[in-house]
Amino acid sequence: MEKEVPLYRTVYHKIVDRILSGAFPTGYQLSSMQNITARYDVGYTSLRHAFRLLKEDGFIEMEERKRPLVIFDPSDPKCAAVRRRVFMQRMGAQLDCYRALPNIIPGMAVQGAKNADPALIEKLTCLVRDSAPATNRNELLNEVHRYVKVLLDSTGNGLVQDLFFQILGFDMLRSTVVDCAPLMSGEQEAVTSFLNHLTLLIRDGQHPQLHTLLFLCYQQAYFELSREFSALPIDSDIEPMAFKWLVHQSPMPLYHRVAYDLLRMAQSEGFVPGDFFPSEGALMERYAVSGVTVRTALAFLSSLGFAQAVNGVGTKFISEYQFSPQKEAYLKEYFEALEILSSCSRAFAISACDNCTHEDISQLKLEMEQYRNRNGLLVFLIKYFLNTLSSPALGHIFDQLESRLIFGIFINDIQHGERQKAYLENMHTAALKCLEQLEKRNIEEFTAQFSELFDGTYRSSKARLERLQQAATEESDTTSE
């Protein structure tokens, strides 16, 4: 199960990231408590706790009957102590996050580039042309960030946008705490030329080249950051903050985490409709939660069509998912998670080529047999290749994405019979052919085939959802008649 992040802490970090990134500037009034509780699906107690912490840390000011006011000013010397403490808390975590960026951001930027139209090309051109001249390297990096953010925004993927808010917030904070390196002669012109070249690649549909250049750019940014941080004195009295990518659009209540983990259990243990989940008492012990939390989690699964209570027996796993507008938020996160992993697949494939031996591949083929007749093969492969990257941040990101993927797996898995059997067999065959290219060290072909596994799953999931939506619409029309 995902490691617990208290709801108030999740809200706190999301607001802090937006303050640091400039989305909530000094003097900005936050939304009312009612709007924020509705947006983040949290109670007033959690929100009041978050606001109290924001006030104690000097980010907001609160007055009776007024909306909270942002008072934190990154450029104000009076905020220096807060800036330094927050920076030192996040320094190690952010370096770990930067280590993961080359595997995520270039691929997602390519997804945005695939949506490019003349208006987007013009926006990118104007952004580069109208940027104010940088005075240091951090400002140059921010120019690249702003450019990439336009591409990420065009994907409409809220999960990766949340991640990028954390990057932007930290970089703005770093620029007010650390003396940034001055520019070398010609460095501004080189970055401007680099961004203009990216625009040409986007216009001409040269997506592999775009991916490669952004990969190298963010890899270099990580190396520069690592060298910069290694020279900084460490404040021994400040406890570092572990990396927590708040990947969900809104904080996830404990019963949601339990419910998602139960789906993960059903997938990993190969549940078929009719199999029973562990007893309520066993689940209370397993997750160290109350009976109310367990019952709420099982009720949540029932509302999604994945569980059914049997009086006097327990709760059994079922596959009776039906599309409904209430479930769109969960579907949206599933497709966004799949899109992120699809965009990462190229980086994962390259790492696998560098680190997997012939013995590793032979063992992988044997372990894949368990997925010949059930879903979850992509999750299994990602987990395997993820271990070759040695990135704690990327591992943490995948742990959160996996919950969203499991949800989508069961949407696809509802369709039983010959069609589902053929789908799983085709997936297994495609994965084997992919690994054959890895054995031969045909890197380009392996990378292309590995990426297609994800793209194909994305397309088939979309098609499955469209069929569910159409069936729901037809049923609704029939009922109304």
Could you explain how this protein is built, in words?
By secondary structure, this protein is mainly alpha-helical. It is built from 18 helices and four strands. Strands 1-2 form a two-stranded antiparallel sheet. Helix 5 (118-130) runs antiparallel to helix 8, helix 10 (254-268) packs across helix 12 (291-304) and helix 17 runs antiparallel to helix 18 (443-480).
Question: What brief labels describe this structure?
Answer:
481 residues; mainly alpha; two-stranded antiparallel ribbon; 18 helices; globular
The total count of strands amounts to: 4
Q: Low-confidence segments, ≥5 residues, pLDDT <50?
A: none
Distance between the termini: 45 Å
Kindly report the oligomeric state of this protein: single chain
The number of helical runs is: 18
**SS strand fraction:** under 5%
Helix content class:
55-70%
Order of helices and strands: HHHEEHHHHHHHHHEEHHHHHH
Shape: globular
Widest β-sheet, arrangement of strands: 1-2
Please outline the major beta sheet.
2 strands, antiparallel
Radius of gyration: 24 Å
